[in-house]
Design brief:
mainly alpha; three-stranded antiparallel beta sheet; 7 helices; 3 strands; about 60% helix; about 5% strand; Tscrpt_reg_PadR_N; WH_DNA-bd_sf; WH-like_DNA-bd_sf; PadR family transcriptional regulator
């Protein structure tokens, strides 16, 4: 964010993150923002000064240095890109659906739909706001991507609600359960499935 060459406080950086990069990457805590700013200043990538605005307590403002701009430019252009890692708490609950009731799973999905719908609306609003500043052209198209991403997530969750009844019907066909009250897969079945899948799809790796 400092690479946009504006002098900002830690508070402003946190707020900016909340309506920009949180939609597709991460939103740091205030403590993380200030910790990283101290590290950046120590390495000479940012400078800081205290601004007093008629108040007793001033605020510290940070600005990127030429070395900092060069460093983030090198990172953006040359550093290896980590593949996206999906860590989806809702899907983990559905994956363990045999331990739950179908209606509870649907309730979890409806709560998720409410959340992603809110994120979709917020991303759309922030994208419209970013559209007013030409220097944010790339930020704006990423926010539009985020809007479409959350819309797709909503559609997938709605489809999954219908799929739950199908999955529950399949489980109901299993006659033998165990003392815990849910069907057990055949011991070692996952190993056999893995072998068959790899042999049928050698190009998956």
């Amino acid at each position: 964010m400092l690479a946009f060459d504006e002098e900002l406080s830690g508070y402003e950086l946190k707020k900016w993150a909340d309506w920009s990069i949180k939609f597709f990457y991460w939103s740091p805590s205030f403590s993380q923002v200030y910790t990283e700013l101290k590290k950046l200043e120590k390495h000479g990538f940012v400078t800081s000064r205290v601004q007093h605005d008629n108040g007793v307590r001033g605020r510290r403002l940070y600005k990127i240095t030429e070395a900092g701009t060069a460093a983030v430019g090198r990172w953006s252009n040359e550093a290896p890109i980590d593949p996206p890692i999906l860590k989806h708490g809702v899907m983990l609950r559905i994956w363990l659906g045999h331990l739950n009731k179908p209606e509870r799973l649907k309730e979890i999905l409806r709560e998720h739909i409410e959340y992603v719908s809110k994120m979709e609306r917020r991303a759309a609003a922030d994208a419209s706001g970013a559209d007013k500043e030409p220097a944010w052209a790339y930020s704006q198209i990423v926010l539009r991507w985020a809007e479409r991403y959350y819309a797709a997530e909503r559609d997938l969750a709605e489809q999954l609600i219908a799929d739950i009844d199908k999955a529950d019907a399949v489980l109901a066909q299993v006659k033998d359960g165990d003392d815990a009250g849910f069907p057990k897969p055949t011991p070692g079945a996952w190993r056999q499935v893995e072998v068959e899948t790899e042999s049928e799809n050698p190009d998956l790796e």
